[in-house]
Write a structure and sequence with these properties.
alpha+beta, Alpha-Beta Plaits, 407 residues, 8-stranded mixed beta sheet, two-stranded parallel ribbon, elongated
């Protein structure tokens, strides 16, 4: 924002000085004298008292004001309507003031408005102005106001033609859409999904995420986009932890209103992606190309298997380093082979000692489970049981072990 404000100040100052230079050279005083004779011949009144200070004030206001509007306006037609409207108002003021015995010379103000409009339009058509239009048309509404301000301050840090960059993808998916469709009327099912996903989208945007897509049952957000962020993975995890609490509240609100509770899952993946302006014309948007969105979507769905809320990939786990508390949940097939996936538990240092001990016992039980040692796995899983609450991933593995024993 400051870049465009400074540009309008520079243009306004230059136009003002140029018009005042022409005035000092005698151009506008000469036009004022002819205008005075015209008014006297037209019998607009008796003696007309020149008011030069008013003309100077109009020049300054027109130069700075029109320059700012010309740069800020996103539509060329609106820009020229404003320039023409300003000139007409200045011209119309002259005969009106003449009726009251005041000689107001309008030509300098009109020249200032026209020149400022041309200069502002030229700036807006340049690279900085073009980027501003793209941000306004393709990014505004997908990011928070704070993110838009950051983009305005660093417009050239975003490469529209594309670049490789580390990005984290967060996908939030409604998992029981078939149940919602079966138990609700069409309008009610749509209203519930819109309410749930709308609340989630607003929450994520306000916390710095970039909205890439909203579908009937899914949200997809990026971190490290459109501006690069070296801590994109940690940022995604921190927001996901807060989102977990928020969506729990929203799901309760949905249950009270529609007597149906949406089940949901969040998946996060991090990795190198090709970011840039994709699509053409009115369909263009800033986005990213790569496997992480697909992997994050699969992780979001996998939450229904394990009963977890937020699952992250091995790529995210490596990127956050020691910033988050995670626990391994399973090894799954991926295009890169078999990979580990993790449940996001808390930020580093925020997991209480008993919870950390249960997490470690769960990991030891998972190792025994993979080794096929059923008895040792159950023993470790028993140590991981929380008191007075449910641990659904733990219950999932205990149920599998007991099913194997019964078979």
């Amino acid at each position: 924002m400051w870049r465009y404000f400074v540009a309008s100040l520079v243009i306004g100052a230059f136009i003002t000085l140029a018009v005042l230079a022409f005035d000092a050279a005698g151009l506008f005083p000469w036009l004022a004298a002819h205008l005075q004779r015209f008014y006297l011949d037209a019998e607009f009144g008796g003696t007309l008292r020149p008011l030069r200070i008013l003309s100077f004030g109009v020049v300054i206001a027109a130069a700075f004001g029109v320059a700012w509007v010309a740069i800020e306006s996103g539509r060329p037609r609106s820009r020229w309507f404003i320039v023409a409207g300003t000139a007409l108002v200045i011209l119309a003021a002259s005969p009106v003031l003449a009726l009251y015995g005041v000689l107001f010379e309008p030509f300098s103000g009109c020249v200032a408005a026209l020149a400022a409009g041309v200069a502002g339009a030229a700036y807006a058509r340049g690279e900085v102005g073009r980027r501003k239009r793209v941000f306004r048309e393709r990014v505004a509404g997908r990011v928070s106001q704070a993110s838009m301000v950051a983009l305005a301050r660093a417009p050239f840090e975003v490469k529209f033609k594309g670049e490789g960059r580390g990005v984290s993808v967060l996908v939030c998916k409604i998992l029981n859409q078939d149940e919602l469709r079966a138990n609700l009327r069409a309008r009610e099912a749509i209203d519930l999904c819109n309410y749930f996903l709308g609340a989630g989208a607003a929450f994520l945007v306000e916390r710095g995420a970039y909205l890439d897509e909203v579908s009937a049952d899914e949200l997809r957000f990026y971190f490290g986009l459109p501006l690069a962020d070296a801590e994109h993975a940690a940022a995604a995890c921190r927001v996901a932890l807060a989102l977990r609490e928020r969506l729990g509240e929203v799901a309760g609100e949905c249950e009270q209103r529609w007597s149906q509770r949406p089940e949901w899952g969040v998946g996060i993946d991090s990795g190198e992606m090709t970011v840039g302006l994709y699509g053409g014309g009115q369909f263009a948007r800033f986005s990213a190309l790569g496997e992480p969105p697909n992997r994050a979507a699969r992780l979001g769905v996998a939450n229904r298997i394990y009963g977890s809320a937020v699952l992250v990939s091995a790529g995210t786990m490596a990127a956050v380093d020691d910033a988050m508390e995670l626990r391994a949940i399973d090894r799954v097939a991926d295009i890169e082979g078999e990979v580990e996936i993790y449940e996001l538990l808390a930020e580093a240092g925020e997991l209480a000692a008993p919870a950390a001990e249960r997490r470690d016992a769960f990991w030891r039980g998972l190792i025994r489970f993979r080794e096929g040692d059923t008895e040792a796995a159950l023993n470790e899983f028993d140590k991981a049981r929380p008191t007075g609450s449910h641990d659904r991933p733990l219950e999932y593995y205990i149920a599998r072990l007991r099913a194997e024993i019964s078979d």
